[in-house]
Amino acid sequence: METPVINLEGLYGDNLENRREVMEQLHEASEKWGFFQAFNHGIDEDLVDKFKRLVNQHYEEQMKPCFYQSDMAKGVLQNNQTSVNSSDADWETSFFVRHQPKSNIDELTDLSDDLRKTMEEYVKQVTKLAETLLGVMSENLGLEKDCLKKQFAGEEGGPTVGTKVAKYPECPKPELVKGLREHTDAGGVIFLLQDDRVPGLQFLKDGHWVDIPPSPLPSGKSTIFVNTGDQLEVVSNGCYKSALHRVLATKEGSRLSIVTFYNPAANALIFPAPELLYPHHFRFQDYLNLYANTKFSPKGPRFQEMKKKLLVNETTVTV
Ligand SMILES: O=C(O)CCC(=O)C(=O)O
Ligand SMILES: [Fe+2]
Question: Which Pfam families match (predicted)?
Answer without folding.
Answer: 2OG-FeII_Oxy, DIOX_N
